[in-house]
Amino acid sequence: MPGAFNALSARMIEREGFPAAYLSGAVLSNSVGGVPDVGMMTLTEARDHARHIASVTTIPLLMDADTGYGEGPYNVARTVRELESVGVSGIHIEDQVFPKRCGHLEGKQLVPVEEMCEKIAAAAAAKTSPDFLLIARTDARGVAGYDEAVRRAHRYLKAGADGIFPEALSTREEFARFARDVKTILLANMTEFGKSPLLRVDELAAMGYGLVIYPVTLQRVAMKAVERALRTLKTERTQESLLEDMQTRAELYELLDYKPT
């Protein structure tokens, strides 16, 4: 599940045959707000960005809802209703203290299990479609250890989560062990430059992970290309040498399903 950073990249994800797209909270913060992933975006901004993506694609969109855009169960329930109403197919919410941090950084803090369970129960009750996927993310591995991550996962499933996202597992063996210890829908985060090894989809599937996300991959590749293009333009004073690396006008129009007359 590649992470879309805007509606155009979401179109490309669908065109290339991926069965679903993902919208990362980090990408939302970076690409829409130009800010770090520290809980600065609002529900309105998240909903509107998701609407743009969902409105031009037909594949499911799974979305990172951070800590639920609010600290209480009523806030999380509203988040579910708002995102479901614009075409989001599922979300994950996490058990970090607000303001949250990137799951692969140090210094994270966890909310009490009971508080997270209340959020999950409220989110589950707010769903209007039984197909809307509610995944509970736990950051416990990097804060309180592996066993606490497993314990929380089981509590979250009992509270109403459809699946579990164990953030920042640190080895191939931990991924396999978690899948044995928690039998449910599991999501694996294959983000780059983090604490987790980059495992193949088929390897993760064999372990028991039904969902695999690449949250920032496309944004990272795109921004590196932008950086190279800007440096070329600055030094060469023309974009001519960049033409072979560009999406052509015809290719853009084809992606947009646009036939100018």
Task: Please sum up the structure shown.
With 261 residues, the chain is an alpha/beta fold. Helix content is 44%, strand content 11%.
How would you describe this structure to a colleague?
It is a single chain. Helices cover 44% and strands 11% of the residues. α6 links the parallel β4 (133-138) and β5 (163-166). The chain has one domain: TIM Barrel, CATH 3.20.20.60. It is α/β, with parallel strands linked by helices and 261 residues long. It has a seven-stranded parallel β-sheet with strand order 1-2-3-4-5-6-7. α1 (7-15) packs parallel to α3 (43-55). The mean pLDDT is 97. It contains ten helices and seven strands.
The low-confidence runs, each spanning 5 or more residues with pLDDT under 50, are none
Number of strands: 7
CATH topology name, in short, is TIM Barrel
Percent strand? 5-15%
CATH architecture: Alpha-Beta Barrel
Report how far the terminal alpha carbons are from each other.
35 Å
What string gives the helices and strands in order? HEHHEHEHEHEHEHEHH
Mean pLDDT: 97
Overall geometry comes to globular
Helical segment tally?
A: 10
Report Rg. Answer: 19 Å
Helix-strand makeup class? alpha/beta
Please tell me the total number of domains: 1
Q: What percent of residues adopt helix (DSSP H or I)?
A: 40-55%
Largest sheet entry: 7 strands, parallel
Highest-level CATH class: Alpha Beta
